[in-house]
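does this look right to u?? adenosine monophosphate version
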Amino acid sequence: MNNLILLGAPGAGKGTQGKNLQEQLGIPQISTGDILRENVRTKTPLGIKAREYMDSGALVPDEVVVNMMAERVRQPDCDKGFILDGFPRNTSQADALTAILKELSKDISCVIGVEVETKELIRRLSGRRVCRGCGLIYHEIFNPTMNTGVCDECGSETYQRDDDKEDTIKARIEVYEKETRPLIEYYKKLDKYFGVNGIGPVDAITEKILSNVVKGCDNP
Ligand code: AMP
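got this back:
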């Protein structure tokens, strides 16, 4: 079983790699950001609470995301494994995840750290466009859609996320450095961390993750 975590700064490519891994491994990619954005879009009580944090680039309070994820990993589609994208984002979320999985007699197989330098993150995030329909991720310059504003795959509209604006990008990277980066050491100590260089062709990075990382993980 592969119970994977994708760790990395905003813009490192967690979402893109998560989609590829989902396809190749046949297990769900669970993106906290996507779930939260869907709640914001449909104006659920959770979405209304989360919005102000997301708009400023801050983390949504732990109790909100932890409860959300506790429910999500219990769903039957996670029985054969899962790919967590964007969770945990600090050590208290990581502790909570361990406890949630323990209750289900599960454990993390490995944590894949997608490593990209800050200058490149800013370049990627400021040009990022996302499909409203299928969630595919593009870049205005480096990976544009064939027709501006229209997803190549499903034909839905592509858009720029509210938090992909310059000030919010900076805040999100700072939050990553302060809150999330310590998780690298946290999972290294547990012997579960594998770092992958996140620069290069998307499919080559996926291949590297599959052949060098996933096959070498513990399989609880
Ligand atoms: P992402 O799509 O992963 O970049 O997440 C977008 C935003 O959702 C973040 O900037 C946070 O405000 C919020 N968010 C996503 N995952 C978490 C998490 N694990 N803990 C707290 N907030 C989160």
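The mean pLDDT is 95. idk if thats expected tbh
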